[in-house]
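Apologies for my clumsy wording, but can you show me some protein sequence, whichever is easiest, together with the matching structure tokens, please?
=====
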Amino acid sequence: MAGSVSTLLVRPLVAALGSAHLPAFWGATDLTPELALDGDARISPAQFCVAWGELIRLSENPRIALAIADATAPGAFGIVEYVCRSAPTLGEALRHWVRYLNLLDDAVEVGLVIENERACLRVLRESEAPAPASHELCFALVAKQAKQLAVQPFRIIAIELAHRGGDAAAYRAWFEAPVTFGAEHTQLIFPSAALGSPLASSDPALLQILTRAAEELQKRAPAPATMAAQVARVLVEALRGDEANIGVVAKRLGMTERSLQRRLKEEQTSFNAVREDVRKQLASRYLADKLAIAEISFLLGFSEPSAFFRAFKRWTGMTPLEARGR
């Protein structure tokens, strides 16, 4: 399964580019400013891979992941980061990171591996469209936060990267540890004793609230990074405002109507088919919630209840009242 990536991981790349290079970046990645600003949106691993490639090409800086780590402010990665910062110890923070990483990126799998006196934050399953610099950024951010938040001094034993790199000396200076490219594993290695170090940012009450919220988010499988899924997500809100037309949806996604139609056609669907499917799913939910038929009709953007009755009969073979009775 290819998986998908949260746009929260794209924002630091956009910030690192600067306005002069953004038009070329949007064009090459098939992303839009509107999509990048949508914290609930997700993109494909291929788009994420291309985004990193374009960032490195346009910036002409193969070590830009380290510069992004220096510039990234706390809280950039939403609830996953805040859960980690609220944990009692560094070890618990990293375990939470591993547990909830799929909320940010479910195309890769990362594990915390303990090997006697060494602890390894290791990539266990690589994405089908790898973005090696994203691992460099991850390790740099972990190292930066651990040094700032761990009560006990934190040091890195080594950084091992499976991809081939360039100037290992520059990475060695930044991490203050040996850095190896072309290694067997992609991993950050540090003393296992550091796992017990308390965090200065620990907040047990906040952690309890945040973990409950993260668990709820995790129960909902991340939305596929298809154009149809993005259209469906926008339509849920657009229907309520009677704005469920292709012009409004395309504008909210930062695309032209023609581009949106083309992307949907490539996925062997259409705007009308996606809208029909969203209405059908919402109708079942609203009936189960015991909303009035007239209210459901309004929320689904039908001109009158009779139009909703006809559509529901076409979808299910029964009227909304019959469905509710069952």
Observations:
- Strands lie at 5-6, 42-43, 109-115, 118-125, 158-161, 179-181, 187-191.
- The chain has a mean pLDDT of 91.
